[in-house]
Amino acid sequence: MPNLNDLTALCLPTGSRLAADETDCRLSLSLEGQPLLALRLNRGPELHVQLEQRFSRPEGQALWAACYWLFARNPDCQRLVWQLQEVPDEAVFSGLLIPTPVNGQYHCERTLFWQLPQPWLGHSLTGSYPQQMLITDGKRHPRRPVKPRGEVYQRFDARLGARVSLRTLDIEQDLVRFNRWQNSPRVASFWQEEGSLEQHRQYLSKLEADPHTLTLIGCFDDQPFAYFEAYWAREDRIAPFYEAGDYDRGIHMLVGEENHRGPHKVASWLSALVHYLFLDDPRTQRVVAEPRADNAKMIGYMQEQRFHCEKEFDFPHKRAALMVLGRERFFDRCALA
Q1: pTM, whole model, 2 decimals?
Q2: Which intervals hold domain Acyltransferase MbtK/IucB-like conserved (predicted)?
């Protein structure tokens, strides 16, 4: 894994390259080789940032890039204290910067920064999908939006030095890969979904037609390595076992490629998956999972990402652990970099 202290560039989801020349007291940023802004830094219990020069890029974009760089550079930094001569309207309206009682001073809070949906999401967020309550199979729940297609999330993981992304599963493109993963003895011992190509085509086709489940492929640097199912908990079999909120999301997780196993990889993809689900609908307050209660390794990985085990319970096919992560807990002292 790269040393974050040695960072000289970050790749943005748009494909642009953010580069820096940084010392203890100064930071100059450029985007695609074009100067972006120059800052004076005062390092103490909090990092104070003073804008010295901004070049031709839009102000909101330049300020966001600087906050991203400084937070990625130091994952322990929780707040940036900005000193600006002019009111940064766009940054204030978006929630990037928060005005303080001190004239010209603004805070950028890590816990808010990582809740801003762009540029991480693969589509423009125009607001929450309107709510209309329905009853499906005796379960009352909101009408769900049409499921997206293609890449839905991307982020350069500064700790891993790789781009982590999520795209929707394409049956024709991913069937053989999914079949190989499910027939791996390691995966089959937990998923119990081994079978033929035709059986797996039927399995995925059923989920594709199900409005409550979204099937996803996880990629590192565009190379598929994992399969995820994200589901709305109110309509799922988990709902009777806890008090599911209208917008709670649940996850099933499968890492298929052996070379992408390990705690540092899990920390990257699991945080990305949860980040996407919290950004996808701001009304989602919890992400839940129900791994097998004896899957100590996966439960341990989830606890490292701030999930907690609320209880154990019995599904018809397994003894499960109810793992829960709340929105506030995820974004509080957010560990994304």
Answers
A1: 0.89
A2: 167-214
